[in-house]
């Protein structure tokens, strides 16, 4: 029973990631189930960016590939093929650049300066 709860949580994490990058709910009347809609985009690098919410203006295609790979692993119908949360964390931490770009740091510094005055 405990094992199924963990696998269910991993599946739910994949759906949550998909909701975050797509800006879509897990189910909607127009498109149906989010996973079914996204399957056509998740595994094909040439159309992967079609899954991204238009509000997400700055993202790296390399980071998107990693996130889509993690989503695919998490929502895999065969629970035995799902990674552990530790493996998911390692994939995300080791393959996605989370450092702030110099441009963003500069703009944040100006914003902070404007707020303090």
Automatic annotation (TrEMBL):
It is found in: Endomembrane system. It is a single-pass type I membrane protein. Keywords: Membrane, Signal, Transmembrane, Transmembrane helix. GO terms for cellular component: endomembrane system. InterPro entries: Kinase-like_dom_sf. The keyword Hydrolase does not apply. This is Serine-threonine/tyrosine-protein kinase catalytic domain-containing protein. It comes from Hibiscus trionum.
